[in-house]
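Please produce the structure of this protein holding adenosine-5'-diphosphate.
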Amino acid sequence: MTDLNTTWANPADWFNPVGREQRIKDYVDLANQLAWKRQASFFAAAVLSGFYFDAISIFASYGIVVLTELFDIFLTRRSKSWDGRDPVIGRLILKRIAINTVLSAVAICVFIVNIAVQQQSGGHFTPLFFLFSASVFAAMYNSQMIGILLLRLSIYGLAFVYIAFLDVLRYSPPLSSPIWLEFFTIIFVLYFIIDIAIKFYRTSQDRLEQMALLKNENQRTKAALEVKSQFLATVSHELRTPLTSIIGSLELVKSDKLGMMPATLKPIISIAARNAQRLATLIEDLLDLQKLDADEMVFQFKPLDVNDLVAEAVESSAGYASKLGIDVKTVFCAGDCRVLGDRNRLIQVMNNLLSNALKFSDVGGDAVTVRVDNLDDRIRIAVQDKGLGIPDDAQDRVFGRFSQVDSSDVRKVGGTGLGLHITKQIVARHNADIDYVSELGVGSTFYIEFDRLMDCDGIASNQSAVA
Ligand code: ADP
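Below is the modeled complex.
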């Protein structure tokens, strides 16, 4: 990684530091944000000084400050459209910033020294305090670019020294005079300003270093994710094809169409078929996950009758339900219960909710109920079981990837822990919400809420349905 601290150690880098484009961009952005704040403080200083000193000369020097400020606004406006990448444009902008820094710092110093010159007695608290504020302001907001900051502070420094010497030259006082005390105080304040400027600069260096680190990490993570995702996709595809033929062959053997299977073989073939099916489900889930991660899952949105959708899903899980000896009851909604959705994906969602409800119920236990409710502008599908239930603190694990609420060795039912994660993402792509209520030992209800499709939506959405 680039060591950004070298830019401080090597003066040659001050005007050409590492990450310069980013610094220029930061500088220009900040200058834009602070433009009005700066104007307000200059104006306030001019009004205040104009009241107590010679107003004409004060406003004349303030006029020069305003001119350089206008030039600065013009400059930052032109640089605003720069994307922070092209180094040639960056160099040009930097040159303009440097020129304007000199002009602006000199104008401010002329304005402030003008006040100091007009003060014949009583020290120079007002001009020095203006100069101090301008220096702190620069240290705070110009710290992205050490060269520019040093340029400005050097000019302010000269003004500080000039004001410090003003009374010494005017009155040639003895060393015991308060004028000398003031002189040394000014030198001390100058040191203090340099110190805070360094601190601000270091902070901005640290920030840039952190940003570079984060950017690096981000790129590496993205590259690793990309590789992982491609690997997953390739392996899953390669596994799917032979697995499909294994499942087909096992089903054929099981059906006795190739001749009667010996009774001793039957349980083994059934286990092989079941496990091959589980593998196939896992591979499908992995492929879906990869598609969702890469934003490559294609949705074909069309108006759908939710009652039809639920009836189809319940029918397709009837085999599994009867094997477990559990009834699946349905309560359909009345009226127009349409939503805009992708039929196949929503069937997948319903299959997942239904198979979970059945899987986590006792064999031969209470019925699973699927309800569709019309809530005026929303349609709710609820899948309720009287099974195992979910503990209170398990929300993250329920919808997490590869996570299961009970992942211990004693877990009775199988699964990948991917189903609800995929379901949640599919539901989100439908602008719908999924959640659940559950009580351990009592049962769970998973519900999804969609926007109900109104007639006027139907026409519009039908036309733009196929993504
Ligand atoms: P899988 O069912 O493959 O383990 P899911 O993502 O579908 O993965 O579910 C994640 C976890 O949420 C399940 O392992 C289970 O612990 C819990 N869960 C989901 N649905 C139910 C349910 N109806 N009753 C009890 N627990 C459930």
